[in-house]
Each structure stands twice: as C-alpha cells, then as structure tokens.
Amino acid sequence: MAVFGLPGGSEWLFILAIVLLLFGPSQLPKLAKTFGKSAKALKDGIDGKFEEDDDQSAKAEAEDEDAPKA
C-alpha cells in the first residue's frame, strides 16, 4: 500500500458517505452533471478545440476593423 496514493475501497466509501451527508441525495445528480461538463470542457481545452473559436472571433474582429465606419 502506497503512503501517498489514491484512496482504497473503504476510503472511497467513506468519502462518498461524507459527500452524501453534505449535499443530500437530491443534489448528487446535479453535482455529477456539473462535474461531467467541467471535465469535458477541460478536455476540449487541452485538445485545442476552443482555439478554433478564438481564431474565428479574431478574424471577425479584424474584418470589423477593416470595414469603413459611417
């Protein structure tokens, strides 16, 4: 057993029991959904999928600057 490693089986049960006591059973699905969305956004950010959006917005701003102002 590692001193500084991931929690084992009984430790995970203890952690889950504390989370259940803190948030209640009705809030757990909402927490899981929020965590899933956050994890997906983090993964997409690491993969660079958001860079395409930034490039498109930068092109749109450049076009707006080049357009004659009335």
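(ticket continues) Second input and output from the same batch:
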Amino acid sequence: MEILQEAWPIIFLSLMGLCGIVGLVAVLSPKKFTVVAEIGGVWVTKPKNTAFFESRIDIDQFVIRHSRQFGSMVTLGVIYQTLAFFDHIDPLWTPFFLLFIIGISGCVALSGLIELGGQVSKIEHQLAEARVDVLTGLANRRALDAELKRRLSEKSRKGTGFCVSILDIDHFKEINDKYGHLTGDNVLTKCVAKVLQNSIRTMDLAARYGGDEFIIIYPACNLARAAASVDRLRSEIATKLFPLEDTEIAIHVSTGVAEATGEDDVASLLARADGSLYAAKKAGRNRSFQHNGETCQSAQITETEPQADIITPALVR
C-alpha cells in the first residue's frame, strides 16, 4: 500500500501527461488525431474502404471537424485535475468545473448529432436518386435487380408468387430516326412511363430495363392476372395518339409475361419473359404473350390489328 501511495503521483502524472498529449494533438493537428484515435481504439468503427457508389464516405472528416472541441475539453480537464491534485485549486470549484465541462460536451455532442443527421439525410437522398432512372422517373436497373432478388428470395422462403412483364416499344428506332431523339425521349416519358406510373398498383414496381424496354414486377399475382393487367396497359398506350408539331403518331408496345417458379433465378425468369416478348413481336407486334412454363401463348384480352412494319402517322386532328 505504501508503495502504491508513493507511486500514485507518478501514475497520476503519467496518465494526465498522456491525456494532455492526446488533447494537444487534437487541438493542434486534427488529421494526426484521427491516427491517434484509431491506434487507441477510440474510433474503431471507422470504415477504411467504404464506398458509396462512386463517392467515398470519409468518416475521418467528422472526427477532424470536432477534434479541436474534444482536445480543448481534454486539455482543460488535464490542467484542472493537475492543479487540483497539487492543491492549487479550491475543491469547492470542482462541481462548477464539471458543470462547465458537461455543458460544453453537450453542445459539442448536439452539433455532432445535427451534422450526422444532415449527412444521413443526404446519403438517403443520394441512395434514392441512385435507384431512379433519370429520364423516366421509374426505378432503374439497379433497383430492379435488387427487387427481383428480394422477390425470388421471398418466394423460396415463403412461397409468395409473383410475375414479371417486359414491355418493348415497337419500331422505336424508326421513331428516333424519323422524328429525332428528343421525340423518342418524350415517347419514353410521356407516352409509356406516364401510363405505367398511373396504372400499376402501389405494391408493383415499374422499371426501365434499358433503351425502350420496361419491366413490371407484379407481387402476389398469378400469371393470368398479370397478363390481363399488362395487356390493359398495352391497349391503353395504343389508344393514345402522341402529338407532334403537325401530326400525331400511334405508339404501340409488345409485352411478354412470365411467372416465377421455385427453381428460378433472375436470369431464367427474365429469359422466359423475354421469350414471350419475342413471340409477341413475331406474331405481329402490338401483342401480349405469356410464358406458361413450357410454351408461349397469346395473353390478349382486347382485340387489335397487328402493327405494320413501318410507322404510320395518325390523321392530323
């Protein structure tokens, strides 16, 4: 005990010296403080190679911005405790000093929470934007792939069925070549994407698959219902004339539908839906076909004339 009493001043001063060094480093060199903090295990949750798509999330910057406040409090605490240890400060001042430190710490913590909350909101906004197709406002390929994997996983665990439909704009290349790419973009957004957004259920997901192809995921839906739903979309698009400067043109889509099975992965499911889309194209376009697991067959509930192989502008109104 006597040895401990004799060694206590040395132990105390060593600890205060170490804390003082940490505090001074935090005040004088915030960048070096991040290294000290990592070595000391203070910032053990810092991801070193975390990337948010193309941009890095640098949590070190958060430590750097708040290190001076932290270092100042540590340094003040070290000075006060050292002076109090050698009886240079009246112990009656200790409660006031602790209240002061707690108040400053609360302010620093509050500002840090506000900053982190802003960063979380910004990341959530970026994440939402990263899953949306810029042109059409529908889900993009990234969001589509994630949803397909999630639905297939849910089906394997719970047996929850769902269907996938592919829509392809007929003769879209000719539209671009004849009327320009701006007109083609307007066809994608105002004629097709808008109909999809306004017609699908809340639980459904409509996504731009690429170019002039769109995919709809129909959760908790069998093949017959999904085929009927997508054929109504096809019919609705076909009945609306798209206005140009001096004329109007009819836009048609071909569709293919497939229902997920327990053996499916993303590739096999999309392959069947794409096979039924090919059958619709082969049958004359402006058609709806479904894949029943073995063969492709017509899924139309509304009669229509097959689309010709050239674009025929509608009569001027």
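Agent notes: The chain has a mean pLDDT of 77. The two ends are 104 Å apart (CA to CA). Closing as not reproducible unless the customer responds.
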